[in-house]
């Protein structure tokens, strides 16, 4: 059952840190493979624009969207901006290192930074964690930032200005569905009796205001 929380800190206080389980380390060094209906490549600026049913794979990472802008810096790091088709959401999926877990996210726009190994889900953002094939945690907000290096994520609502002068601004609330750790561990153990309990994601306690 989804529960509405007035602050992100309260929403994520139930996610306790039980040990390191980071995203796949090898993904950042894997080649980026892209399929699309059309491509525009600029060799001088090292940029590529893929349009039409774009599918990107990079190691265990899978990205889907209507348009993907890719650039590469002089050091060889890759960056991608994924834009969804009208009425749809861009998609991101990646396996977590050392455990049978996957992170999935959707939003209007997805920004992938290969240098810092972070992903931003912008607009109607959703982040889900699967243990095997079972949905374990789900979080929604206006902006979700996921750090693949530290496995820390932050979620922010949207601040809307007051409808009339002198009024109070309003903020949309973050929504989260969090499976109790004991229940998640029991489910994972029954599916794989020899597996150790999977550690949880690490939430950030830092709250920020995000303008609309």
Helix proportion of residues, in percent?
Answer: under 10%
Listing every helix as H and every strand as E from the N terminus to the C terminus, the arrangement reads: EHEEEEEEEEEEEEEEHE
Percentage of residues in DSSP E strands: over 45%
Task: Tell me about the largest β-sheet.
Answer: 6 strands, antiparallel, barrel
| CATH level-two architecture | Sandwich
Overall tally of structural domains: 1
**Average pLDDT rating:** 75
Question: Count of DSSP helices?
Answer: 2
CATH topology: lipopolysaccharide transport protein A fold
Radius of gyration, whole Å: 18 Å
Distance between the termini: 28 Å
**CATH structural class:** Mainly Beta
The count of β-strands is 16
Spatial order of the strands forming the largest sheet: 5-6-9-10-8-7
Question: What class do helices, strands and sheet pairing give?
Answer: mainly beta
Low-confidence stretches at least 5 residues in length (pLDDT < 50)? Answer: 1-21, 204-212
**Large-scale geometry:** globular
